[in-house]
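Before any further analysis, backbone shapes were mapped to integers, which produced the following:

***
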Amino acid sequence: MPKFKPKPKAPPGPERAEGRLRRDPPPLPPLSLHVATTSAHKLAELQAMAAHSGVELVGMAALRGADGAPLPEVVEDGETFLDNALLKALALVRATGQSALADDSGLSIEALGGAPGVHSARFAGAPRDDGRNLALVLQRMAGLPAAQRRAAFECVLVLAGPIAEGPLANRSDDGIPWRAVRGRVEGAITEAPSGSGGFGYDPIFVADGLAGTFAEVGAAAKAACSHRGRAFAALLPLLTALRDHAARTPATLFLRTIGVVALADALATTIGQGLRHAVKGVEHALGVRPQLGAHERAAVSALLHHALRRLAVLQRAVDLLRGASGPLTTLPDPRSLRTGDALALACLTVADVDAEGTPLPHRAPGEASALRGLLQRRPDWVPQLPAPMVALEKALRTATREVAGLPEAALRAAQVGVHPDFLAALDAAWGPTMASRLVEALALPGPPTIRCREANALGALRSDIEGIGVRTVPVPGLPQALMLLESARITALPQFAGGGFELQDAGSQQIAALVGAEPGMAVADWCAGAGGKMLALAAAMRGRGNLCAFDVHDKRLAEARRRLQRAGLQAFVDVRALPATAAGDDALGSFDRVLVDAPCSSTGALRRTPELRWHLDADWLGRMVSEQLAIALRASRRVRPGGRLIYATCSLMPAENEQVVERLQARLGWRLLRRQRLGLADPSALALGPWPPITGDGFFCAVLEREHGDG
């Protein structure tokens, strides 16, 4: 009888995450970038920042042209840091055919009218000499008091070449895609150089919050707050997201007949509620069909968003199936759709895309649509169609042709999927080019974003989220925030039930940070609603002080109360409805900070409420302005002398943002400390070519301070 031999011990299995096997995202492919700089100091700084990121930064020293000679130095004759960085990045891509990174940076001094600025490297003339540059700056600033020695370092990093490809990428004249990020640090110029580290102007620049010059504090401390460090901190999430996107295999749109029915159900619910609450509609349609898997659920959700963007064409196709005749002269109004149209609309939506979910041109019969593929697999479902397949396809072709023949303004609105009044308002505020770019961004999914209750718990939470197969990236400037590169049911994690994190857009988190709430303060969230910002304010105050959450409608506060209970903060925050009129406000007390997250058109959050794009007519866009001013003025009476009023919206429109703040200043006479557009609401950031999956919604925020003696 053979001797029994025990099986060799198996290697350790996958680590378990919260009771389930971990399935971390696959490793990202390595990325090598040529860096367009001849400065060994800059290259070394960037390489240190890229350590452990999986991104290799390679200098230009070993690069040669076709003739074997070193690459010629680019003439940096641009008017801005962006211009010069772009010149260098594009030149390197053209020379190598590979992706490249370029930096341009410099020092801007208020007392010198912004000089040396883009001329920082050769401020004292060519060739570059750091010592002569420093001496010239100090000579021109000799005798100036500390208040007049303010300055800022700025850095622009341009990423160009194949890795930058994708939605919202900028393009050079010869078609090279590129994106850019900025970093800026405020500080002051010293009266004499100090320190032996760093390079350039480091020995005479003290950043706000640092105890010494950049040349004194060491490389790590400098990198943590410098202009180049901040720019690279913004670049790393972009590189991670782009690498993740490039590594993904294009997926086939997985859809069965039950998925089409779920889509019709979601559309019927949305239409039945006055073309509102699409997200809730799809959540309900999927929730009552547990047999749908993750891929099919994602397909139904994506198709719903596609339908809402394409409603102009799809609605015309529905009208044609109903028997509409005569030429199309105006853009259809999707608000006239009926719930009985939902199945036809769902089938037309699936016939509007191919097997990968890409929109079809509808130029000829028999295109390989997702619906045709489905019917080939399930021919028994043909009798369930609201019209024969050939009729559905003909309706789409005719609708596409008729919409293409509309006047330019209506055609543009149909192409980008918004109400013509909204597009006209964006054109007026942003210009047609930027307006079209903005609407393109609003048509793409927004990133799931979380706020961890404690910054020191973020690492463990990130590990747990990646343990269910979802890659994450940090949000620069928000140490408690993470963005997910794909949707996932993270609310099933135990940390959520225990109040360890909340779902909250990056822009919303930035507004909460701009409030400046600190332990011991008295703070009011005047339009608290569901309480997202309230929870962020509570975390900042760490259970010390007085935090009140108000709203004019007590029912809106029900979700806030529920979230407070989950977070264990119900005893700290006073949640209550505002008095019916301002006459009763004295009983509320006064506050160091009052946040007014005013009701608005919600144009900055269209990615999360995609059906709203068809409601944004002139009436909708203008209906809130007077109310916004009245709410802010009422709230301002609760601000203590020396306190601050923070006015915020999730709107893109100047009439709801800058113009309201100007009227507030005129009425109150308070000092404006800050006025800022965030995420997609910021034209300057949108012009840099952001990557939509890690770009927050559009927000606006202004901070006004009441004088101490204003009693």
In short: The chain is about 35% helix and 15% strand. The chain has three domains: 31-247, 257-417, 449-705. The domain at 257-417 is CATH 1.10.940 (N-utilizing Substance Protein B Homolog; Chain A).
